[in-house]
Write a structure and sequence with these properties.
There is one protein chain. It is built from two helices and five strands. With about 120 residues, it is an alpha+beta fold. The chain has two domains: about 70 residues, no CATH class; about 45 residues. It is globular, with a radius of gyration of 18 Å.
Length: about 120
């Protein structure tokens, strides 16, 4: 992409507060387009995946706070799995594989009791 193709840039900031053992106790984030400068939203967990252009490898950052409950983590992962199947469909138009991914997400939700068993 050439500089002339860029019409706007936006920064996303993530702030992680750690305890003495380097365990996250607070995670906050903000984006230029969301709020006034200096305002952050708090979250209990985050999962970021970046595909490295040169190495052609995925870099990941997965963090959660000490207060994140197992049931909340189950819900967070279910929603992430479900949204990944939708992302995959939009990116590839591979409906069959996207549906298989969504079925696994539903199976995960049943096993973790996020949704009732059929």
């Amino acid at each position: 992409m050439e500089a002339k193709d860029v019409t706007k840039t936006s920064d996303i900031t993530i702030r992680v507060s750690l305890d003495k053992d380097q365990v996250p106790v607070k995670i906050e984030w903000s984006a230029d387009d969301m709020h006034a400068p200096g305002k952050f939203d708090e979250c209990k967990a985050m999962a970021i995946a970046l595909f490295d252009k040169e190495q052609r490898d995925t870099l990941r950052i997965d963090l959660w706070t000490k207060e994140m409950q197992v049931q909340e983590m189950d819900r967070f992962l279910y929603q992430t799995l479900r949204s990944l199947s939708q992302t995959y469909l939009r990116a590839t138009q591979n409906k069959e594989l996207a549906e298989d991914m969504a079925k696994f997400a539903h199976y995960f939700a049943e096993k973790t009791e996020i949704v009732p068993h059929k």
